[in-house]
Every structure is written in structure tokens, then in C-alpha cells.
Amino acid sequence: MRLVIAEDDPLLREGLRLLLEAEGLEVVAAAHDAASFLAAVDAHAPDVAVVDVRMPPTHTDEGVVAAVEARRRRPGLAILVLSAYVEQRFATELLADGAAGLGYLLKERVGRVAEFLGALHRVAAGGTAIDPEVVAQLLTRARPDDALDRLSPREREVLALMAEGLGNGAIAQRLVVTDGAVHKHIRSIFAKLDLAPDDAVDRRVAAVLRYLRA
Asked: What is the CATH number of the domain that holds 99?
């Protein structure tokens, strides 16, 4: 796996590089700002980019803007965004064109190495990795949705874990239930959200996006 890091804090940037290389991953570039990050994406064609939300010169949304542009230049590029705290607009902006190969984690998650690496590999494989705290705060701020109100408390738990990017087996382990029970809950979620089987629509992604954007 070939990676580019975009992080303006030199200590965190170097720490990420050392951590990833220690796991046998190839860090082809470590950029300090959005311009050098995009140049690295063009030059090295990485598989994954780990990008800070706030970067020079204004330290507002340069990282997210650059991440969106990097996906435009290199379709399929997996992006794992890191943020010091939950920023709802940036999270939903990244998800606007679909959730495949995207992750949004709080920087504190990097210190939990196993969780961070699990999220990175999930995103690299085309999955989704949304920080549990991001999910919780997005839900707290969400507008009411009548269909979501039909979900049982357990179904909402399952959907929240789906939003983090967990598969059925991982959800079953987290909730201490069987895979079959998780599958049953997910079928019920699809039914209550009126997500009928359709080859043109990934119902799992549709349910998660509806949940996050509600």
C-alpha cells in the first residue's frame, strides 16, 4: 500500500510516517500543505492519502478542499481525513459524492494504533471509517427524520456501527449478538427506510448516508 501524508504539524507528520512504515506500508511523500499534497498525489499516484482537515495558509478547510480535488484528479483514491475535533460541514462535504474509500477520524484515534490501522485498511479496501464521536455528534445535530424515528433502539445502534464502517461480524462482536441477529436488524432497517433491493444502489451506503445527513 502506497500512502501520502498531508499534515502541517511536523511532529505528528513524522510520527505518522514512522508508524505506517513500521507496519510495512510505503509512505511515498509527507506534505506540509495542500499544494505540496496535491503535487505528491500527481507525482506518486498513491493508493491512500491521510489528510489533516486544517492546513496552511488559513488553517480552515484547505485539507478537505485538497482531499476533494485529489479524488477528482485520481478517482478511487482512498482518503482518511484527520481532525482535532468534529466538524460537521467538512464530514458531510466529504461524503457528498459517496462514502466508498473514505474515512473521517479524530486525531486522538491515532494514539489507539490498532483502531487507527484498522480504519486505514478498511478505507484502503474501499470501505468507510467514521469516528464514533463524529457519528454521535452528527446525529445530535441532525434534523428529525420520520423514517429514522421508526427504527428501534437496537436498530439505531446497528446503523450507528454501520456508519463507523463496521461489517456485520464486527457489529455482532461489538453488540455481543450473533451474525444472524445483525443480518435480521439490517434487513429491518432497509425495510423501514424504504430501501428496496436495487442493483444500482448500495443499500448499506444509502442507509448510512441518510443516517449521517438526516
From this structure: 3.40.50.2300
Q: Has residue 32 been placed in a domain?
A: yes
Q: 26 with 111, same domain?
A: yes
At residue 85's C-alpha, the angle toward residues 29 and 193, to 5°, is 100
116 and 20 both lie in a single domain:
yes
CB 195 within 8 A of CB 206: yes
**Number of domains the chain is built from:** 2
Do both 125 and 158 map to the same domain? Answer: no
Residue 3's CB is within 10 A of a number of other CB atoms, namely 24
- The ranges of the chain with pLDDT < 70 are 87-99, 135-146, 198-201, 212-214
> ∠ at Cα 203 (200, 208), nearest 5°?
130
- The answer for residues whose C-beta is within 8 angstroms of residue 20's C-beta and 6 or more apart is 3, 5, 27, 50, 120
